[in-house]
Amino acid sequence: MNDAAAPSRPVFYVSDGTGITVETIGHSLLTHFPDAGFVTDRMSFIDAPDKAREVARQVRAAGERHGTRPIVIYSLVNADSIAELEQSGALMLDVLLPFIAPMEGELGRPRQSRAGSAHRMADFGRYHQRINAMNFALTHDDGIAINYDEADVILVAVSRAGKTPTCVYLAMHYGIRAANYPLTDSDLETDRLPARLRPYRRKLFGLTIDPERLQQIRQERRPNSNYAKLETCKREVAAAEAMFKVERIEMLSTTYTSIEEIASKVLSTLGLHREML
User: Fold this and answer.
1) pLDDT for 127-165, tens place per residue?
2) What integer pLDDT is reported at residue 7 of this predicted model?
């Protein structure tokens, strides 16, 4: 069977915590196999054997439904839960296993594992930083609020180029106050920055996208509209890219770039040195 005819492979991110860390690492792993088809699902707070047993049942069912062996990428500390999950017959990948032994050897002490330790709320300062950043991203989404004085970054792009998910990712994982500004037809009539963005030039980062991909996304949102026409997409993308070049705004195409890579590029370009929360 060739790759084009291969069935989608079910992938489960399983964690005894929120599952955000496992999903982030797992997604990064899958991006190295762009020609393979994956269907992913995150299973959070699997902190007891009976919960793991139910997940194993769902994993087996997914394998039968897709006609291929599932993959389970997990972070669990309960040995009984892991044993239950192994009964699914899936390929089991412990995200921390390759690092535990070297760290124990280096530090001269064994690991002390606790369920949900990756995202426990021991540091309330970081927790509130994440919540405040999320609120900021939501209130400054798609130009809803335009007071950018407190923004760490402002993503600028045409509609449906990936601004909102990147802002949410930056807020959730780094506590970055990210706003986004959608370039409208009136903004694109000139190759100069919109007046409301000029005071915040040092915070700007441009996103672009292949017009064909943009057309597909817009077609799903507003089928057969002028907004979704390929000609419209080509015109808007070309005008936006021209603006970024004239104004010397760093830009990145989101077409084949993972959200993790986009976020990393934004942080490094703007000099925002933040640890993952």
Assistant:
1) 778 788 889 998 998 877 778 999 999 999 999 999 999
2) 75
d(CA 3, CA 81): 34
CB 109: neighbour CB atoms within 10 A?
A: 9
Sign of CA dihedral 216, 217, 222, 227: negative
In angstroms, the first-to-last Cα distance of the chain is 43
Residues 40, 155, single domain; the answer is: no
Q: 174 near 276, Cβ under 8 Å?
A: yes
H/E run at residue 30: helix 20-30
CA 119 to chain centroid: 17
Q: Is the pTM of this model over 0.90?
A: no
Nearest by Cα to 133 from 168, 162, 165: 168
- In the DSSP assignment, the letter for residue 249 is -
Question: Residue 147: how many CB atoms within 10 A of its CB?
Answer: 10
Closest CA to 36 of 60, 11, 61, 57: 11
Shared domain check, 255 and 146? yes
243 and 188 Cβ atoms separated by less than 8 Å? yes
Q: What is the largest CA-CA distance in the chain?
A: 64
Domain CATH for 12: 3.40.50
The length of the chain in residues reads 277
In the chain the beta strands, taken as DSSP E runs, fall at 9-15, 38-43, 71-75, 91-94, 153-157, 178-182, 204-208, 251-253
pLDDT in tens, 20-61: 788 888 988 898 898 899 999 999 999 999 999 999 999 999
Rounded Cα distance, 219 and 269, in Å:
32
Both 230 and 149 in one domain: the answer is: yes
Query: How far is the C-alpha of 26 from the C-alpha of 74, rounded, in Å?
Result: 9
Are residues 98 and 177 located together in one domain of the fold? no
What pLDDT, on a 0 to 100 scale, did the predictor assign at position 2?
A: 45
